[in-house]
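Exercise 3.2. Students should predict the tertiary structure of the chain below and write it as structure tokens, then compare their answer with the key that follows.

Predict this chain's 3D structure.
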Amino acid sequence: MITATIFEAKTNLSHFVKQAQKGEVVIITSGRNKTPVARLEAIQPTGKKRLGALETPGFVLTEQFFEPLPGEELRLWNGGAE
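Answer key:
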């Protein structure tokens, strides 16, 4: 989530719109207390969705992830004895 004052939002509107298109939410604040007054977000984000909160994921899902588990491992996951 990005936070910006009204002045920053006016000055950098194009940048904040691009960030919103990537899936970010921009909160616009007002006054000395920086009270949130508006929210800028894309109607349909165009950026890639991330799995988790990391900017750069520490792992990659391969096709093997979607393959069924072997019978023995599936039995263990379903509560079967070792």
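Discussion points: Residues 2-77 form one domain. The first helix runs from residue 6 to 11.
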